[in-house]
Amino acid sequence: MLRLGTDTKQHYKKSLQDNVIAYTLVLPTLIFFVIFTVYPFLNAFIISLTKWDGFNDPVFIGINNFKKLINDKDVWNSLSKNLQFMVFTVSAKVILGFIIAFFLNQKFRGVTFFRAIFFMPVIMSFVAIGLLWKYIFNPNYGLINSILFKLGLSAPGNPITWLGDPSLAMWCIIIVDIWRWTGYHVVLFLAGLQTIPTEIYEAATVDGANEWQKVRHVTIPQMYGIILTNMIFCLTGALSVFDLIFTMTLGGPYNSTKTIALYVYETSFGARNQFGYATAINIFIFFIVLIITGVMIYLMNRARDNK
Amino acid sequence: MKKNIILLRTLILLLVMALLTACSGPSQPSGGTQQPSKSEDPGEKTPTQKGPTELVYYSAGKLENEVTEIVKEFEKANNVKITGVCTTSEEFVQVVMVAINGGQQIDVMDINGQDARAFATKGLIQPLTDKVTYWDRFHEASIKQYTFGDEIYGVPTGDAGGMVMYYNPSLFKKYDVKVPTNMQELAEAKEKFAEHGIAMFAHCGGTIYMWPSWYFMLFAQTSGGKPVERTIEILEGKAKFTDADSLEAMKILEKLGTEGYFQPGVNAADRIAGEQVFIKEQTAMTYAGSWQLEGFRSGGMDEEKLDITVDLQFVDGAQVRNTGSVGSHALTLYSKIKPENTDLALKLIDYLSSDEIIEYWYWGDYREEKSAPRALANKNAKVPEEVLMDPVFQKYAEKSTPVTDTWLDWYWPPEVTKAFQEQIQMVVGGQTSAEEAMAYIQSVLDELYAEGYDFHAVSAD
User: Fold this and answer.
1) Which residues contact B1 (CB under 8 A, 6 or more apart)?
2) Is B294 within 8 Å of B372 (Cβ atoms)?
3) What is the largest CA-CA distance in chain A?
4) What is the pLDDT of residues B305-335, one digit of tens each?
5) What is the span of the domain harbouring residue B412?
6) B273 in the same domain as B334
7) CB distance A140–B101 less than 8 Å?
8) Structural domain of A92
9) Residues of chain B contacting residue A254, judged by C-beta atoms under 8 Å apart
């Protein structure tokens, strides 16, 4: 009994030492997390319950801001723009990113060069990208229309107005976003692809699997985690997209590219300085992202378990 | 165990260092102009007076190096450091908001008329009527722009500027088109230019806040030359944006937009793109700012290719008027300034708005390129002889400035301004009708009335 008691005591002592070290290691991050994430979030929630112009003292109005946003058609219009943006950018970036990563994972001459080329837009400033593409899409002297004129596909007196056309503007931004971020997802997919053990492919080869079957039954299942991570990154990016739109269209023309982040910006810093209301919209968006991400994780896990 | 203790100690040390680093940021507001340290100058006089050691000057539009230059003498004479926080006009409100919420020092703010009214209404700036004695230094029109209720809230500074109709004489000559003076001639000119792939007007419709300037000019004509008076009547609730004169101005814009008077893709063009289509002779005219003259010149538009007209009547028989301001900015005093800073801040306002400093500001030796001559808010500030007078600017000063009305959005509440910007863009783009647009804008104003909006109300602070 005495011997057992000593073992237990030593075990607890060792466990306590491990815990202290673990908590100490986590502590700095935790402190910063609380200061820069938890506190601002709680503070934002408090602001969302007030009427505040950003200058004078806030006035507590309960959940009125949340009631207001439910009936605010501009919120829903903006969210619909996010939805359009999300559906097309998420699918394009994930699918394209995966395909490109798959090919860049092969061994061929110049592979490093191509990896760098695909990643290059990611390191460019969003302002530079916005301005660059704004000029490319310029209806009067932009690169695309110049090419179209030369090919006889468009007349100088009647050019395609791209960012000036409400039915095209969002598509232009979607294309730019895909161009910009695909390289980033390629890198994530590449990292994932390189962790798949070659033995699994060898076993599949022995079992007579062709290349497509290897991709379908080995690569993709092994990449579920990475695919999910990529999708969540794309999704949160799509719901908070601001920079490209701000530099390329400012939400126009006719609000056709006004996403929720831009609407929040306008509500905060634009005409009305409605900080309380803008914060309420942000909290609302936070919960939408939370729910969508939760559903995605659930679905991906279920798909993986079914495998 | 010993290793663990060493690890623990190292971690704690790192944490403490990180916290110390985080807490030891600069005390001056971000974006502040770096001023030379006076105490490092061995020839500097010992401070003899008690008072603030630093004043913070927020500026919308000035550059940091310019502020550094113009406050040098003041700093020396008063043994004070002037920290300039310089930002663009578009970002100014945000920067001030952040500073106020961050508890940062603000003493003097250099702001435009639109922000001045909003800041006065929010109680962010103090009335200066009785605090300033040198009002006779400025043109009366410029003081009027910063008079809200019965009080003057800003000391005018800067120059007079505004919108004017530029045209390209060589294009009109080349295609044998008469420079239009009325709608009939404008329609004919448009048809002739269209045959050569040239649009009538260039405009930066993607820069949405530039659209109302067209409305101001048209409303001046439809309102019988009384746009400001009519605007005040509307904002007082004695008239409406749906009244015939307001609606007619929007209808003209609707006609210009839907009948293709503007360059294709006008609502995608930012300021530079708007300038470029005019410079590249893809349009024959543009309603643009007097400040854009230098851009047109540097783009290669010489005297044969650039002139202005103040004769284009969009309404038959109407007086052609333009829109702009006399004294584009005002120096204002923050309402929550520390009491001990007030006197010196007022002295700084006096200094910055003096004739000598205004002259130095525009044409001082420190400038590599001296700006074109301008009509200043100061009555007695003089343009140096060596500054060449651009003939177009001379014409602008002679013909357009006398018929320039203050920007109407300096009177409108920001909500109405925003509604106008969006609705004009939609009307020009054929997305809504003029009637619907004006009804919507009136509904925005009605909503403000319901919330207690009063045009003449300014903060009691």
Assistant:
1) A17
2) yes
3) 98
4) 999 999 999 999 998 999 988 767 899 999 9
5) 161-324+407-450
6) no
7) no
8) 67-306
9) 267, 422, 425-426, 429, 431
